[in-house]
Design goal:
Elements: H1 2-62, H2 64-78, H3 82-96, H4 98-107, H5 118-122
Length: about 120
């Protein structure tokens, strides 16, 4: 009986080992299926995004309103400000006038004054 018990225990152990191998194979197969499904979902999402991007690029590239807007912005940004130009011209004229330079020097005490000031009138 002891021999028969030993043989039966060994048989049960071998059978349990044989059951474990198919279970692990099934589990790894399930993991592979899940990975493949996730990969397929990602591939579909990338393909959709690429198709949308292609349509978007072709639509934007064809519209003339986009080009017109870009041209308008570049013309507007390239133009000089008329107020700023007039201020620059006034400053240049003021600095080029000999009277202004002499007046400024005389105000700082260099040379004789060429104009009458309020202090001269009061004196």
């Amino acid at each position: 009986m002891e021999n028969e018990l030993t043989i039966r225990l060994e048989t049960c152990y071998r059978l349990s080992q044989k059951v474990v191998r198919p279970q692990s194979s099934i589990e790894s197969g399930h993991r592979r299926i899940i990975n493949l499904k996730q990969g397929a979902i990602q591939a579909r999402a990338v393909r959709r995004e690429q198709a949308i991007q292609t349509k978007l690029n072709s639509n934007i590239g064809r519209t003339s309103s986009t080009q017109e807007a870009e041209d308008l912005i570049s013309r507007f940004m390239g133009r000089a400000d008329p107020f700023e130009q007039s201020e620059i011209l006034r400053e240049i004229e003021r600095n080029l006038g000999h009277e202004t330079l002499t007046d400024r020097k005389s105000d700082q005490g260099i040379g004789a004054s060429t104009r009458t000031t309020a202090n001269d009138v009061l004196a």
